[in-house]
Amino acid sequence: MPRFIARNAVAEALKKKGLWKDAKTNEMRIGVCSRTKDVVEPMMKPQWYIKCSGMGKEALDAAIRDENSMLEIIPRHYTADWKRWLENIRDWCVSRQLWWGHRVPAWYAVFDGDMPEDFGASDERWVVARNQEEAHALAGQTFEGMKFQLVQDPDVLDTWFSSGLFPLSVFGWPDDTEDLRAFYPTSVLETGHDILFFWVARMVMLGITLGGNVPFTKVYLHPMIRDAHGRKMSKSLGNVIDPVDVINGISLEGLQEKLLDGNLDPGELAIAMEGQVKAFPNGIAECGADALRFALLSYTAQSDKINLDIQRVVGYRQWCNKLWNAVRFAMSRLGDEYLPPSNASPDMFPFCCQWILSVLNKAISKTVLSLESYEFSDAATTVYAWWQYQLCDIFIELIKPYFSGNDSKFAAERGFARDTLWVCLDNGLRLLHPFMPFVTEELWQRLPSSCDHKRADSIMTSEYPSVVECWTNERVESEMNLIEAIVRSLRSLAKESRERRPAYVLCRTVVDWEVICNHQMEIESLANLSSLMVINEKDDVPTKCVVSVVNEKVTVYLKLEGSHSAEIDLEKIRKKIDDINLQQEKLLKMMSVAGYSEKVPEKIQQVNADKLESLRKEMLSLREAGQHMESSNRQHEKLLKMMSVAGYGEKVPEKIQQVNADKLESLRKEMLSLREAGQHMESSNRCE
């Protein structure tokens, strides 16, 4: 009898027997099958269970014993979830009424005369065994002398039960195979934190019970990927990102075709398509597998969720182009006949070569430590920073003068730079390889190989870089840190102009003076200067300069002659005010002629009146800007003069020096802002 008809029949039967009391409405959420639209209701059926209290206790102890724990969960804070699940574990229902899966290894003894509907009614007739032959043997002992037929339970095992046997079954268990003895337990399991209990805990319980040991010694749990707004990915929202689409790229039309090929109902389909239009108006650009992998690794520092922004992946794809350009630059400078050195001893190398090898050493050390501690985001960030900010932005820029022309004075430096460049690219590509295997393989194959030893056929089989003690040079790194700080300050001062200008560095200690004198060429090259002069407190303070305090011992000045200065901007404002005065006088004269209000159309009168008001407001704004600029300029000059007096760095407390430096920077930014505002007003006036 169909269930809905049966309900009415049951109600009628209760009424006939006088057992019916009342019927009330009960609001509830009814489950509906998304495909057939049938009402889905729970149905009581006998199930198979596994008692988990003992197994759960062993799995719990395996991970929480501080000194002798057999299992390490990474990140460590998930151990609390492990404890919460296993301390309160219940018996595990392992039977499922599905078409596909591993059959439950249980057989029911059917005797002559049994009715089909009585199948499974008696618990005493069930036989659990490894296979049918073993089941027959056990049933023969139980039902000796009786005629019966064994019928296997049609239920299948829970997916997580089958998956829980994975670490054992792949090595041939339950047979005692060589692979099982050699490779069980394994080292690391990598999976999502959302299935820590459903899969990981079940594998550990079954592994200890059936295999005698934990199936792995470490579990690394990765974050779950969400969309750029932190929402869970859902087909009905249209924010699901297929990794293949990120790798190969796809148009908006292609994304929506995938939705149309799915099974969403019309309402959900409309919402999903609208969501795709908002999230990917231009589709998804082709990023490649390396960029996607690197982005995901970089994201792993984001707690337990990754808010995936495709534009970040696009950024790493563009960074791959930078790697290509770096190798292309190297190949053009190395030449066809270049033979790499068997080892690199930097004692005789130029300063920049010693520095890049030293920071490469640190990058290798930090990357290896980060990988060993499963801090993949830190490892990716370290490798990226070395390639981007140290190799490409600094080292390659510093060695370019060695190769410009064929100057004989740089002959030795050219040779050292070639060797250093090759060593950096060889180690840098191998360091990056686990994160970007495809592009690094392609580029590494293009590098010339050393003739002293045979190189591996593939970068993936080559040795991972290790620290070379003789490369570390703390003195060189300290000097470069000062150079970088000076360059940053000079670039900040010159950011509104690209022209090369002279600069001065005021040093208040002999040590800094010597360092900067020895590395003038590096500073000039990186800061794009026309010249650099190193001065001390006894020298005159440079005039017509903008200034920035690097630290309490070093101040930089950038010449503004031939470029914008406060006085030039003030003069522009004065000229603009004079021009507005002329326009106002001309307009007022025209509006004051006899009969103006009677003869001139009202529309034209209104235009002239609006123009006059606009000129008045512009005049007011320019006067205010000029006054602010004059005031800021006076304060700037006064503060600069005070900070340039002899003994300032030694006599004035560091705290006061920092306050003055901050005030000086604030005034500089204010003057720049006023200058830009004046330029904007001038541009707006031209547009009008």
UniProtKB/TrEMBL annotation:
Residues 354-496 form the Methionyl/Valyl/Leucyl/Isoleucyl-tRNA synthetase anticodon-binding domain. Belongs to the class-I aminoacyl-tRNA synthetase family. Keywords: Aminoacyl-tRNA synthetase, ATP-binding, Cytoplasm, Ligase, Nucleotide-binding, Protein biosynthesis. GO terms for cellular component: cytosol. Its EC number is 6.1.1.9. One of its GO terms (molecular function) is valine-tRNA ligase activity. The keyword Aminoacyl-tRNA synthetase applies. GO terms for biological process: valyl-tRNA aminoacylation. InterPro entries: aa-tRNA-synth_Ia, Anticodon_Ia_Val, M/V/L/I-tRNA-synth_anticd-bd, Rossmann-like_a/b/a_fold, tRNAsynth_Ia_anticodon-bd, Valyl-tRNA_ligase. This is valine--tRNA ligase. Residues 35-308 form the Aminoacyl-tRNA synthetase class Ia domain.
